[in-house]
Inverse folding.
């Protein structure tokens, strides 16, 4: 068994890695921290920096002395090393490209568009809020989020199984479920819209034994 440590900040992308580790059947040491004032506490971020990630962000993992950051990279690294049957990132190029597409979309499309809205809320000066300009900007930025979820909804409807790519969990689900759950929970740019197939898929992910184990071990909550 490899020696793996996972730096896990509460309510974060680290649940992607915890779920993946359960899917791979790998045990790991958990370095957990609750949030403080909504962000990572300084001491926890310092511990992550000391472990080799200068940004102090979560998830970060150390695998037999090798430090890896960025949830998508961690996903690809762990699968390359330990997914011997290529179940989570398939070898067949046409299926593989679908899984890779969702791995990247989870960060570079879904979280990119929703975080733009969160940062407007966090960082706009009061005068921008009071003038109504914040609401106008949020409304404009929401179009991307709605398009993203419409795309996810239609891909899930077209899909051949109950998971994002087929009838079993792949790395696509491990990466994408947190993005979808978190954006819907926070209502970031969703404009009160509902995507029933996305909601059903999230429930299917949450019903897997591996997801449940990851939540039980980490105490993850939204
Ligand atoms: N692109 C990175 C983002 C990592 C990141 O921003 N993590 C957040 C939690 S979801 C974090 O550590 N925030 C704590 C802080 O900056 O205080 C990834 O995919 O892992």
């Amino acid at each position: 068994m490899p020696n793996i440590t996972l730096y896990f900040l509460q309510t974060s992308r680290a649940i992607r890695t915890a779920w993946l580790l359960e899917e791979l059947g790998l045990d790991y040491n958990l370095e957990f921290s609750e949030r403080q004032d909504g962000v990572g506490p300084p001491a926890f971020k310092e511990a992550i920096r000391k472990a080799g990630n200068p940004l102090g962000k979560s998830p970060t993992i150390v695998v037999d002395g090798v430090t890896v950051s960025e949830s998508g990279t961690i996903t690809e690294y762990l699968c390359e090393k330990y997914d011997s049957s290529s179940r989570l990132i398939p070898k067949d190029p046409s299926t593989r490209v679908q899984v890779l597409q969702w791995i990247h979309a989870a960060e570079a499309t879904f979280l990119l568009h929703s975080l733009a809205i969160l940062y407007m809320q966090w960082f706009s000066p009061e005068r921008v809020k009071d003038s109504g300009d914040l609401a106008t900007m949020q409304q404009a930025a929401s179009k991307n989020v709605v398009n993203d979820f419409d795309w996810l909804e239609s891909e899930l409807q077209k899909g051949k199984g109950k998971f994002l790519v087929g009838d079993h969990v792949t790395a696509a689900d491990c990466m994408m479920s947190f993005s979808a759950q978190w954006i819907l929970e926070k209502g970031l740019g969703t404009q009160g819209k509902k995507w029933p197939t996305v909601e059903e898929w999230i429930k299917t992910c949450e019903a897997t034994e591996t997801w449940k184990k990851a939540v039980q071990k980490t105490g993850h909550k939204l």
User: Anything to note?
Assistant: The longest helix spans residues 93-123. The CA atoms of residues 3 and 64 lie 5 Å apart. The domain at 4-84 is CATH 3.40.30.10 (Glutaredoxin).
